[in-house]
Amino acid sequence: MRRCPDCRLAVEGEWARCPLCTAPLTGESAPSPLPAVPLRFTRRRVLRVLTLTSLAVIGLSFLAQLLFDADRESIGALRSIWLGVVATWLVVLVAAGKRRNLAKFVVYLVALAGGVCVYWDYLTGWDAWSLTYVVPILCASSLVGLMITVRVIRMPVGDHVVYTGLTVLLGLTPLVFLALGWVGTAIPSALCGALSLVVLAALLTMRGGAVRHELATRLHL
Ligand SMILES: [Zn+2]
């Protein structure tokens, strides 16, 4: 039977790593006492569902823009949806490519795409759709990308400190514009701020075990 050197547990079955702490197991494997249950939720299926959902959301937003063009007030939200979906995917793909500077990339992405839209808004007579919708959607979708990344891709514990700071920054940016009175409607900025609090709480609780394990290992050495 395989053993975990950290938890001092015997593990039955073909486990390469400890199911509790993910430390490599030692010793000979024993037959699993559990029946083989097919996985109902695979990573590939998650990505396929996300892809189809993204395409559907973008398609519907363009269709809605076509139908409700007369309503100038809410067009900003619809106009920004594809940008948000693209931003989420860029964050996930850059993280999956194991780039070290994901946080820097997210800041550049939000600044560049937001800046382009602010200029576009300015050119078309400034009704503040860029600051009201684009900036909160970009920040919120980067937060979603960050959440997917932390869930799907294992990353070094040290990165969590950086991502925690980034989460605060992404939540605060739309709130600053809101406080300055530069936005048309408060709801998108407020929602983004609330989302960053949720992500912050998730980041601090989700990998808490890994952080403790990391600290314990280092202190043991
Ligand atoms: Zn263990």
UniProtKB/TrEMBL annotation:
Keyword ATP-binding set for record: no
Record-linked Pfam families: DUF6320 (PF19845)
Coiled coil: none
Transmembrane intervals: 49-68, 80-98, 105-122, 128-149, 161-180, 186-206
Key word Transmembrane present: yes
Keyword set, alphabetical order: Membrane, Transmembrane, Transmembrane helix
Protein's UniProt name: Zinc ribbon domain-containing protein
UniProt source species: Brachybacterium saurashtrense
